[in-house]
Amino acid sequence: MSALPNLPRVFEASTTIFGAYNTIKALERSSDTPEKLILARILGYLILEGPNDQARVKVAQEVNSCKTDDDKYVLGKTYMQYFLRVFRKTKGRTPAHSSQVSHPSFNAIQARLRDKLIRPPEDYQTAKRDALIRDGHRCPISGAYDRESLKIYPELRDMVLKAQVPAYGLHCSHIFPDIVNKGVEEDPSEETSKTATAKANYAASVWAVLERFGYTTLSEELDGKNIHRLDNILILDPVAHDHFDHLELWFEPVPGRKNTLLYQTLRRVPNPQLLELHAACARVARLSGAGEYIEKVLMELEDSKVLAKDGGSALALEYALIPWVNAEIRIEA
C-alpha cells in the first residue's frame, strides 16, 4: 500500500482534478481506520491510474460533488465493488480438454482457424480450444505448452520433447469475466429468482460505472455468447493465470508499438480496451492496498470461519458477497 503522491504536473491544468485530488489527500490524512484509508486511496489512484482521461475526470467530478467525508468513502466503496471487484476473480473454472472426437492435423487446423476467428465461439470449451490453437498451444508469458494438446497432436508433442520445453495444464482466462454477462444463463433453472436478481443488479451497476468511464459499447459487444469471443480470452499457465486473476499481473502497451502486449506474433490479439481496464484495476488495487487487504481478510475468513467482532472484516466480506446479495443498488450512468 502506497501513500498518495503529490499530483503530477500533467494533471494540474485541470481545476476539476486539482481540486478533487487535494480533497482526497485531506481525506487520506484524516482516515482513522485501515478500511477508510484504502477507500480514500482508491479514489486518488483512480485519478492517477485510471484507464483513460474521461475516467479520471469523472471520478474527480464525483469527489467534488460529495458533501461529506462519509459520501467520499461510499464513493470509494462503490468503485471497489463495481470496478476493482469485476476483474479480481475469486475462483476460476478450467474444464478438461475433450479428446472424444477425432482431431485433424495440428498444422491444418491452425491454418483453417484464420477464417473461424471472425465469429465468436459458442461456449467456454470452444473458446479455450480455439484460443489454444490461436496461441500455438502455449502460454505467451512463460512459453510453456499445453499438456493436453500434446496428447492430441503428435507432431506438437515431438517438437516439444525435442526442444525440451515445459508443458502444463494451461488455463483459459476471460479478461472481462462472465459474472457481468447480461445474456441468458445456459441453464436458468439452476438459479433461484433471488440470485438471478442479485446478479442482474450487480451487472447493471458495473456497466453503469464503465459507461461513465466512456466504455459505452462494451455491454453489447460482450453480451451473451460474445463473452467468449477470442479477443476476450487469454491462455495462461497456472502461475500466470493465478496472478492475472488476483490482479498481480497485467499487460501494458509498449510505447510506439501498436498491439505489442506480448502478443505481437498472434494473428488476433486480445482487445486492448479490455486489457487497459484490467491493467487499471490491477494498478489501483496494488497501490491503494485494496488487493492486499481483501486477500488477507478473505484468507482469514476462510481459515477461521469467524467474523471479527469489531467489524474489521465487514468491508472484505461485502466485497466478496456483493454479486450474490439481493440488494437494490442503483448507479446512474
Describe this entry's structure for a reader.
- The protein is mainly alpha-helical and 333 residues long.
- The protein has 15 helices and four strands.
- Strands 1-2 form a two-stranded parallel sheet. Strands 3-4 form a two-stranded antiparallel ribbon.
- α3 (34-49) runs antiparallel to α13.
- The radius of gyration is 22 Å and the shape is elongated.
- Residues 159-247 form the HNH nuclease domain.
Could you give a quick summary of the protein structure above?
The protein is mainly α. The protein has 15 helices and four strands.
The general outline is: elongated
Q: Quick one: biggest sheet? A: 2 strands, parallel
How far apart are the termini? 30 Å
Structural class of the secondary structure composition?
mainly alpha
How many beta-strand segments? 4
Mean pLDDT across residues: 78
Strand and helix order: HHHHHHHEHHEEHHEHHHH
Helix % is 40-55%
DSSP helix count?
15
- Roughly how many Å is the radius of gyration? 22 Å
Strand order of the largest sheet: 1-2
Low-confidence stretches: 91-118, 259-267, 324-333
Approximate strand percentage:
under 5%
Organism: Leucocoprinus leucothites
Protein name: HNH nuclease domain-containing protein
Domain HNH nuclease: 159-247
